Amino acid sequence: MRKIGAFLALLLAASGASADGIHNPQTNASALTTGTVAAARGGAGTVNGALKGNGSGTVSQAACADLSNAAAGCSSTSLPVTSLAVTCTRDLSTATSTQTIPNATDCGGVTTFGFQPSACDADGAVSNNTFIVFSAHSGPSLSQWSWEYLTGGPFFEPTYFMAPADGSTTNYQTAQLTAYNATTLTLSWTKTGSPTGTFTFVIRCFK
Hints:
mainly beta
């Protein structure tokens, strides 16, 4: 039997026939031409994705921690969102009322910050008055202030989050940031006089 086995081995070598790992399972890995090497034998097997070796010739699917040597940052597929800016509008002719920010109608379809805000700032301008610009900030305690840049110069408003005017000092709206909700905030607007125009503002909030 030994002679027959040796003869077959010589015959295969002489013919140049390649092994497929099934009919000649004892060949080395470099001679394989078909088939799939099982993970238990150091091959990919049916694993789809990154591979992890165990140091003994067996591989398995790699987890996130395996790719980063257990670094915590690998556990998330994206960076956490800690701030978001949205562009919204306010029709200054609208009566005194509250406005949820963001909302689909006034904020281009955006309806949530994706987190509970804790501080916000904003800036904007009124459509029919190129002289007014606004910037403001509100902290966790809802303290707020704003600067108004009107034709007569800048005016400081220590109690309003926003105070857009239509070019005069008698027709305007003021907004106070009155609530940080789960994923939105509430602006309470008060109308004074008969302001016109659209106030477009970018508001950025932080988690």
